[in-house]
Amino acid sequence: MSAADAVTDSLENLRARFIGVRDGKPADYIPQLALADPDAFGLALVSMDGHRYSAGEADIPFTLQSVSKPFIYALALSLLGLDEVSRWVGAEPSGEAFNAISLEPDTGRPANAMVNAGAIVTTALIPDTPDEPAFDRILRCLGRFAGRELDVDEEVFSSESVTGDRNRALAYLIRSTGTMPVDPVLAVDRYFRQCAIRVTAVDLATMAATLAYGGVNPVTGEEVVSAEVAARVLAVMATCGMYDGSGDWLLRVGLPAKSGVSGGLIAVGPARFGVATYSPPLDATGGSVRGHAALETMSQRYGLHLMLNPALPGSTVTLVTTADDLPSAPSAEHERVLHEQVGVVVAQGSIDFTAAERVLYALDESGPNGGSVVLDLHDVTAVDSVALAMLHTGLARLLSDGRRAAVVDPRDLLGPPDVVREGTGQDLPRYATREDAVEGCAQALAGEG
Ligand SMILES: NC(=O)CC[C@H](N)C(=O)O
């Protein structure tokens, strides 16, 4: 037993709670999928540190089906850019079933890349290169998301090929509207192949975690797509990933997700985790019954809904120290100066837009009587580029208002001194420790007084 088994326990718990659900049945319009074991139920979760947790049948292979769609959309966005991809496929929820004729009346574009019509087009957009056919590129890309080489279940592929007339019809219809970039037969063949790529629930959780982690596979460390692409894919998953059940899913579960008719389901907690379930019996929207129930319960139990962002008082980024926190001074007069005229703002953790706003506000509030203020970044782990620009501008304003400031920045998070000078327009004394910074400010004040 290890401490982290507590995470596995929560997956086991969800499995135990829903394994007895007997609703739904495996897809049979692709005959090979009807052979799946309806009792198989696997769950897997991958953290942003690449830690993997699983329960039940998380290592048995099944085919991706529609769970492939967001990843192919990611590949298309990476290769062609949003503007070009958007010429061919839209980003509006269709409110219709996955295999509906979801084509925009004016443009003829499929509504979005999560329904079959849009996915067939997205797949068709992936170009061959002189040394790599498009499908190999697709397979390799999905393998990078999963962190291992993947292969195709040829039996499922042929099974869908011989029965996939509706998708073929869709492809021809799209060609008739002028929004099919390649031959429809070729496009559908490639799409069926992509749907027949074999994965496990653990693979899927890793793929989902890669989207959560800004396009970097947290297990292998490889950057598969850019952070912008990952964010866009998640946006389309959030609005369209569960087809005509997308609104209700976002309402109740609150996570970008994608279902597939083989019983796979992924959900993404941006910057938090990727999770996947596998259980073949499906509901009316073509999503896994047990997977849906388990993820909905998981989201509610652990407060994972994206729109649920309670302020965490314990993780306050900054604090204005009181006089009592300042170091003791050599003389009573010196101590009075320290206590009355030097404020200290301590920032901690990683600083983004929201945290930077707090820091700047605290700087204004600090420094009794508009005296000196020390910004202590000793416990800051990272400053993103937006926050960095905000800190530079804020400190510059502070100095141009005539306030004295100093920073404790032992790791040069604000950039080298000349960058800071440029940002602030004036010298901003920098120190390695809070004691030195406070002392420096007090001496400067004493010198002025
Ligand atoms: N929703 C799905 O998983 C559908 C995928 C399947 N290959 C189809 O096109 O019908």
TrEMBL record:
<feature type="domain" description="STAS">
    <location>
        <begin position="332"/>
        <end position="391"/>
    </location>
</feature>
<dbReference type="InterPro" id="IPR036513">
    <property type="entry name" value="STAS_dom_sf"/>
</dbReference>
<protein>
    <recommendedName>
        <fullName>Glutaminase</fullName>
        <ecNumber>3.5.1.2</ecNumber>
    </recommendedName>
</protein>
<dbReference type="InterPro" id="IPR002645">
    <property type="entry name" value="STAS_dom"/>
</dbReference>
<dbReference type="Pfam" id="PF13466">
    <property type="entry name" value="STAS_2"/>
</dbReference>
<keyword id="KW-0378">Hydrolase</keyword>
<feature type="binding site">
    <location>
        <position position="243"/>
    </location>
    <ligand>
        <name>substrate</name>
    </ligand>
</feature>
<dbReference type="InterPro" id="IPR015868">
    <property type="entry name" value="Glutaminase"/>
</dbReference>
<dbReference type="InterPro" id="IPR058548">
    <property type="entry name" value="MlaB-like_STAS"/>
</dbReference>
<feature type="binding site">
    <location>
        <position position="167"/>
    </location>
    <ligand>
        <name>substrate</name>
    </ligand>
</feature>
<keyword id="KW-0007">Acetylation</keyword>
<feature type="binding site">
    <location>
        <position position="160"/>
    </location>
    <ligand>
        <name>substrate</name>
    </ligand>
</feature>
<feature type="binding site">
    <location>
        <position position="191"/>
    </location>
    <ligand>
        <name>substrate</name>
    </ligand>
</feature>
<comment type="similarity">
    <text>Belongs to the glutaminase family.</text>
</comment>
<comment type="subunit">
    <text>Homotetramer.</text>
</comment>
<feature type="binding site">
    <location>
        <position position="261"/>
    </location>
    <ligand>
        <name>substrate</name>
    </ligand>
</feature>
<feature type="binding site">
    <location>
        <position position="116"/>
    </location>
    <ligand>
        <name>substrate</name>
    </ligand>
</feature>
<dbReference type="InterPro" id="IPR012338">
    <property type="entry name" value="Beta-lactam/transpept-like"/>
</dbReference>
<feature type="binding site">
    <location>
        <position position="66"/>
    </location>
    <ligand>
        <name>substrate</name>
    </ligand>
</feature>
<dbReference type="GO" id="GO:0004359">
    <property type="term" value="F:glutaminase activity"/>
</dbReference>
<dbReference type="Pfam" id="PF04960">
    <property type="entry name" value="Glutaminase"/>
</dbReference>
